[in-house]
Amino acid sequence: MRYERFPPSPGLADYVEHFWLIEADLGERRHEEILVPNGRPTLLLSLGDEGWRKDPHTGGEEPNCSGLTGIATGPVLIGQTGQVHLVAAQLSPFGPAALGLPCAIDRHMALDTLPDGAPLLAGIRAAGISRAAVERLDTMLLARLNPIPVGIVEILRRAYALLGEKPADARSWADRTGVSEDRLYRLFKVHIGISPKTALMIARYQALVGSVLGEERGGGLAQLALLEGYYDQAHANRDFRRFTGVSPRQFRQTLNGIARMMHDGPDLSKKADG
Q1: Kind of pairing between the strands at 67-69 and 108-110
Q2: Contact (CB, 8 A) for 196 and 94
Q3: How open is the CA angle 195-62-38, to the nearest 5 degrees?
Q4: d(CA 89, CA 44)
Q5: 117 Cβ contact list (under 8 Å, min separation 6)
Q6: Residue 29's CB: how many other CB atoms inside 10 A?
Q7: How many CA atoms lie within 13 A of 202 on its CB side?
Q8: What's domain 150-261's architecture?
Q9: Domain residue spans of the chain
Q10: Phi, psi of 5 (to 5 degrees)
Q11: How many CB atoms lie within 10 A of CB 68?
Q12: Judging by DSSP bridges, how do beta strands 2-6 and 51-54 pair with one another?
């Protein structure tokens, strides 16, 4: 499997965290893995065989076609057979708002249902799975950019940068960000589509996933849970099942290849290099 990441151009640095591409041949076997919620929307362009998205609770499936996947607050299985040729932009949490796209929370919206979505795929198809395709996507996104006011972007970037300090709740997070809890809530709902409380839960869960995958700190789940800001192991288990659909032990043993490959994300408090 080929997996590469590329930084956005400076003009998109507040709204696109990175571009990535994947190229693989999975043959005829149905391959499914858990897509770990990371609090980020993704604009996905598929140049290969179409995959599927499955709700692990209901078993319901829908095509994993070219389109926009919004921030997820629950588990999703990603399935694929055949040729995987994907080019994607991992957006910042407030990226869709600046790019004329819907928030699409807990939804995958096909490209042809998005405003001016179809030209995005047509524009990169000729370039194939290559850096040139990423550069074309960057150029097309830059052309549709309607920047969020600088002051608001600074507040949102500061808020996400502070997640590394593991704020205990939305109120203390707002205090550290330098705004009232009400204002932080309004900014999140308008420009991101979720509440600060939900963003905080996803970030805490993401940190736990990293610890479960890496176990770099040693110790069992109870110790990892406390280190990542959970009250106790039961609290961590509930959140893990809510976002992943399985227990930490089941996740660590199976269905985590995509999570291992894509878990670590860039620091929102820094602008990417051009």
Answers
A1: antiparallel
A2: no
A3: 35
A4: 7
A5: 67, 68, 110, 111
A6: 8
A7: 21
A8: Orthogonal Bundle (1.10)
A9: 2-147, 150-261
A10: -120, 150
A11: 25
A12: unpaired
Q: Is-contact 79 31, C-beta < 8 A? A: yes
Alpha-carbon span 29 to 33, nearest angstrom: 13
Edge-to-edge strands of the sheet including 31-35? 31-35, 76-80, 51-54, 61-64
Q: Do domains 2-147 and 150-261 have the same CATH topology?
A: no
Q: Which of 26-30, 70-74, 139-143, 269-273 is predicted most confidently?
A: 139-143
Residue located via tokens 């999703």: 76
Q: What does the alpha-carbon distance between residue 207 and residue 205 come to, in Å, rounded to a whole number?
A: 5
Which pLDDT tens digit goes with each residue over 36-65? Answer: 788 999 999 999 999 999 887 788 899 999
Highest CATH level, class, for 2-147:
mainly beta
**184 exposed, middle or buried (CB, 10 Å; 0-12, 13-18, 19+)?**
buried
Geometric angle at alpha carbon 200, from 196 and 205, rounded to 5°: 150
Residue range 254-272, pLDDT digits in tens: 655 555 555 544 444 344 3
Give me 238's structure tokens: 């509930």
Q: What share of the chain is helix, strand, coil (3-state, %, to 5)?
A: 40, 20, 40
How far apart, in Å, are the Cα atoms of 220 and each of 126, 242, 255?
49, 20, 20
